[in-house]
Amino acid sequence: MPDAQILELIREAFPDDDRDLEAFQLRYERYETQLTDALQAVYPDHPDLPRRLLEVMLHAYHERPADLRRLDQRRLLSPDWFQKEDVIGYVCYADRFAGDLAGVEAHVSYLEELGTRYLHLMPLLRPRAGENDGGYAVQDYREVREDLGTMRDLARLSKRLRESGISLCLDLVLNHVAQEHEWAEKARAGDARYQAYFHMYEDRTVPDQYERTLPEIFPDFAPGNFTWDAASGRWVWTTFNSYQWDLNWANPDVFLEFAQIILFLANRGVDVFRLDAIAFIWKRMGTNCQNQPEVHAITQALRAAARIVAPAVAFKAEAIVAPEDLLFYLGRGAHHGKVSDLAYHNSLMVQIWSSLASRDVRLMEVALSAFPHKPTNTAWGMYLRCHDDIGWAISDADAARAGLSGEAHRRFLSDFYAGEFPGTFARGLVFQHNPRTGDRRISGSGASLAGLEVALERGDARAVDLALERLLLGHAVVLGFGGVPLLYMGDELASLNDYGFEHEPTHAADNRWVHRPRMDWERAKRRHDVTTVEGLMFAGVRNLIRARTGTPHLHATVESRVLTSPNPHVLLLEREHPLGTLLCVYNFSEHEQGVPGWLAHARGLGAAVDRISGEHVDVGETLTLPPYGRLWLTAREDASNRW
Ligand code: GLC
Fold this sequence. Notes:
globular; eight-stranded parallel beta barrel; six-stranded antiparallel sheet; TIM Barrel; binds alpha-D-glucopyranose; alpha/beta
């Protein structure tokens, strides 16, 4: 930062003029084609849409607060702000972390201590009362959940976070609204304008035709994809729960509503929008109604609007889909670099748990090497655990290439993490068993799935050590991958499963709440005491974060490339950065393992430094790793360089 006097001199040299107007104009010129092409592709019969959208954008631009306009300029100058190695994400429910928004504000120092630069607060816009799918059934996008605070509190919190260099991510639920949302209420009352916001049918003819090719998301508590609504006398499309009404994005009014909502929230200081269940927003008969091309054109149009009004904003796609579909969310073909800036790397998470169970990395190698490169202006969001269940997204083709049966391996993983497989270390719960497809997803906290719960129960000190090492290995892979690593609240303290959800009426049926605990601040107080489990975990995670922020090779423009490992227990990832090569070496077994030393020598890493421990490593004939050992090796001379 230049000093205050210099800034003052610069300011005085420029009287107030119409720079704001000029900024808008220039950005509009820059993004006009992206905007109009996308709108034309999706809404060809609505030539007035760009003009209607312009009105929305101008209104929002006039309202944009001065400090956020400065942030816009700053981020335009550093468009890679979310790709940097020092971006560390933390994900939590405001109430479960600290009571309410004011509580979060009071705990910013905890986030700073961890090194957080990005905070995802789980759904906090006003949901329907009662069951609401963890807040993903929104009743009002312009109000905050009453017990958390107000919109004003949210704006204040975002400002406070900004002062600490932390950006704020919120969920934007755009596939559905709560059946109590004003639009749905009007539709239920028979208002034709609002019925056109949804997919409503007088009888089962069309729903039955769609059902032929639709999967079920919650077969246990919400079978089928349509719900009878007695008030309107219609079948309504409800992909998720019966109270979550899918929106009809083919209606340009729905598009405009969401453009307004995004800009409204951006003006309250939201930096990143997590586009919830984005894969589902466009419906097409005869398909599974996911990943349709219109989804990407709509994202492109929304992003262009955001870039014009609030270029500080980034989009993150929550598309838990196969790799060949996933890359489209970061932009392939004509949408290259024009859609979401970030997307979740679900496959990495699944493969980490798969390799921890099998102690074998060959399937992970196959799966990760099949991933096409992402556009260089985008980044993955990586995580070991999140608020959702783990679905065993392992394709039959990948499994076959690794010499496995996909079906049998998925069954093994469900058994293993449900705590049913002989000798398993894990303790988890089966979520949404679908006997028709054999799908058995798993709920559970990272620590319980990694063996800590069982180990503590047995009072087995060695098993406790191994569980912690497993967790730290998992975090090392996540933090060492490049992109935005997302720590899920409690991960830093090795929080166990919380079975209390069974006694909360609105949670009891949904065992994902087993891994959505309340923050245990008593345990957090012991985080600096390394004679405790939480202290060891916190120190380990903090150290990885320190290592990560000091390793420019982890900037997201560079890809992590899988090397075929001569040892099936050891994963090798390479990142070829202009500063030099980073070689990540991970032992997925509880036994000491080695890989031939020439692998390091061949990359100029014979005399290396391990960024995690900070120690020099002189690689001889064999590079040996302790149980669950992890190394981030770079040449010693790279260590002092900054990018
Ligand atoms: C996303 C959320 C999940 C929710 C679903 C429906 O997948 O992560 O928790 O149930 O969307 O909104």
